[in-house]
Design goal:
Helix content is 36%, strand content 24%. It is of the alpha/beta class and 247 residues long. Strands 6-7-8-3-9-10 form a six-stranded mixed sheet. Strands 2-1-4-5 form a four-stranded antiparallel sheet, with no helix packed on it. It binds adenosine-5'-triphosphate and magnesium ion (MG). Adenosine-5'-triphosphate binds next to helix 1.
Length: 247
């Protein structure tokens, strides 16, 4: 279970999070939506210690991680993987070696075994046939799929996907949605997904929260979002350029 309790975060005079609380239960797929710059990435970066809140608490499976020292975040980052919005791969390494790297680093297995495990993860995103090719041969979408495979190498309990389907063709996006669902249904993985992709939001989310002006505006099921008469949420989920929403 992931708990954020009353998180506040500012950068200089800019207040980004003004008291955000959320609970994500084991095996749940929780989507965070909101306009560009709303603070979605800032919020999730707290979970792996890339940012510390100005106030508030973060609790992972009952253990408070809010003010841990950098080295105490190492074990948390193995349990809690993040697919970054701008995921980068090592250009000088094959896709296979990119994915095998965390296995080589953190698990005491032979090179051959690490490569076998890496192939299994590439297969999850349909990229096993390209294992010996280099990142430069592919566009952003394919590289993102490999970054997802790499994030799954240590069999994390929690995965944060920061815009996993942005810039990806619809078929691959669908495959990623199905993968997120499978991780939850078959392995009990708890996921937080940041997304603007309505098809994905309404196709896979168990629960959705929208950040607006530093706070959660609604935290509910996809059905709650569809039926709300909140005009700001309706504007957002219908993608209307005109409406009450402000920057
Ligand atoms: N390290 C930082 N230092 C200063 N300001 C930052 C930092 N990180 C984020 N911000 C600011 O915090 C605000 C929220 O940023 P964030 O990246 O969380 O937006 P987002 O909701 O993820 O948007 P997008 O959909 O564009 O990814 C932005 O105004 C951003 O400029
Ligand atoms: Mg972001």
């Amino acid at each position: 279970m992931i708990e954020f309790i009353d998180i506040h975060k500012s950068f200089g005079s800019k207040q980004v999070l003004k008291g955000v609380s959320l609970t994500v239960h084991k095996g749940e797929i929780f989507f965070i939506i909101g306009a560009s710059g709303a603070g979605k990435s800032v919020l999730v970066k707290h979970l792996i210690g890339l940012l510390q809140p100005d106030s508030g608490r973060i609790i992972l499976d009952g253990v408070e991680i809010t003010a841990l020292k950098e080295k105490d975040f190492y074990p948390i980052r193995k349990r809690c993987a993040m697919v970054f919005q701008n995921a980068t791969l090592f250009d000088s390494m094959t896709l296979l070696d990119n994915v095998a790297l965390p296995i080589r680093k953190h698990r005491n297995v032979s090179v051959r075994k690490a490569r076998e495990l890496a192939i299994d993860k590439l297969a999850l995103v349909g990229m096993q046939g390209e294992a010996e090719r280099y990142p430069a041969d592919f566009g952003d979408g394919m590289r993102k799929k490999v970054a997802i495979a790499r994030a799954l190498t240590l069999d994390p309990d929690f995965v944060i996907f920061d815009e996993p389907t942005t810039g990806i063709d619809p078929i691959s996006a669908n495959m990623i949605d199905k993968l997120i669902r499978r991780l939850s249904d078959e392995y009990g993985v708890t996921s937080i997904v940041i997304s603007h992709d309505l098809r994905s939001i309404f196709g896979v989310a168990d629960r959705i929260a929208m950040i607006y002006q530093g706070e959660f505006m609604l935290d509910g099921t996809p059905a709650d979002f569809k039926s709300t008469d909140n005009p700001i949420i309706q504007q957002f989920i219908q993608g209307q350029p005109e409406g009450p929403m402000e920057d």
